[in-house]
Amino acid sequence: MNKNFIQFTKVSFKYGKQSVLNNVSFAVNKKDFIGIIGPNGGGKTTIIKLILGLLKPTAGQIRLFGKQAGDTKKLNRIGYVSQNATSFDHDFPATVFEVASMGRFAKRGMMKQLTKQDYSIIEKALTDVDMFGLQDRKIGDLSGGQQQRVFIARALAAEPEILILDEPLTGVDMESQHKFYELLENLNKEKELTIILVSHDVSMITKALTKVACVNVNVTVHDLSDGINNIDLTCAYPEGFQRVPHHHD
Amino acid sequence: MMLEVFQFGFMQRAFIAGVLIALLCAIIGLFIVLRRMALLGDGLAHISFGGIAAGMLFGVYPILSALVFSVLGALGIQKLKNMKVYSDSAIAIFFSFGLALGIILISLTRGFNADLMSYLFGSILAVNLTDILLIGAVGIAVLTVIYLFYKELFYITFDESSAKAAGLPVEKLDTLLVILTSIIVVLSMRIVGILLVSSLIVIPASTALMFSKSFKQTMVISTIIAIVSVIIGLIAAYYFNLAAGGAIVMVLIVIFFTIFIFKKR
Predict the structure, then answer these.
(1) Under CATH, domain B7-260 is a member of which superfamily?
(2) ipTM score of the complex?
(3) To the nearest whole number, what is the mean pLDDT of chain B?
(4) Which structural domain range is residue A220 located in?
(5) Which of A125, A129, B67, B176 has its CA 20 to 30 A from that of B242?
(6) Are A131 and A179 within one domain?
(7) Which residues does A contribute to its contact with B (CB < 8 Å)?
């Protein structure tokens, strides 16, 4: 079994003339819990879209599960929560359960009906994010943080091999954030789920991460097995940015 | 007293066709309304008008030629959309094209005739056995396709980009939805008429959305509203000698505004 899930080889990407990623090479292996950090506009979301085949690289090669990225058949092995998941039509008539069930659709396949087994996987996913009690509520009536958890449940319901979360904690309160990191740590350690977590916030780096990728046009990957104290994360800040000591009230 | 309205063969045909059409329009309508394509039905109906006129001029069964026009028009709208023409503009362009073509063909057949009027405004008396068989067979086929692709159509309606990231063929599913709509429009115009077809697609869904909580529940309410309106409309049309299409749409409008006012309080 190949442990190399995602491989970027000398990948470049340009929007028009602007270079977003330049000659990027890195790998994501099975069981990795990788944090992708860097300034806004540095190319983090572009990396995700390239993995999903929603964008094509201008140069270089991307392999996903050993095949060239862009093969839509591989996508049902990925659970993905986009950056703007909660910006849907809030009047849309769909319950929490209906939204989470979408995670099973691609897994079950076109023209097939969901089975009892699918429904129990959906229930489990909602339980994992503490949303099972609200399963019959209309999704648009929930708070931003609750909606975000439902979208994470939708991603988990796909029983993915890779979970990709793009800024998943926007609008989520501190207590839920803490629980959420515990959940991710569990999924990574016990279920051996490979996780890619995108954030512009360096402070989200927890001890649970196994790798950090600093993305700012270039990509530098740091292995965290030796701890996070000695690594250089300055790449994550815009050029000329000075680290200012935090003033705590 | 047994309602005599149910005893006549032509009324029985109208009820069977009407209920099936109501079901189809209400179900497809929920997807169409939520995808902000409410004018699609109207656009396709006007394209079908060109097809009806062509059928009459060349002696082809008009429903069949309308079906061909409508499906081709649907594909044309999709093509323009994919070439970055705004979707409402794409609908407007084909809308005018179908209407213009229809008018030219009618002028060639030397003006309006009663048969054409029955397509424009709908007619219960005009529904014959061929129509019923066609509406029945094609309608059931369309229902089956919607059932098979229900979850995918639901997903792309809720969130296209996530559906795409999950590997679903979003453009193809969107085209499927538009083609199904184009077929339903043609099946419906025999009863409600070209000019009022889109109301049966748009109003039940818009009414049901006022209660919306779950997608399934909204679809069921929308279907019930459509079927009830068609039945009441047809009965009213029979007893008061009204155009069926107009009567059905009036019932839909009354239900919509009654609920709208009630909900506002």
Answers:
(1) ABC transporter involved in vitamin B12 uptake, BtuC (1.10.3470.10)
(2) 0.92
(3) 93
(4) 1-83+166-185+202-249
(5) B67
(6) no
(7) 52, 54, 72-76, 78, 80, 82, 85, 88-89, 91-95, 98-99, 101-103, 105-106, 108, 110-111, 113-114, 136, 138, 154, 158
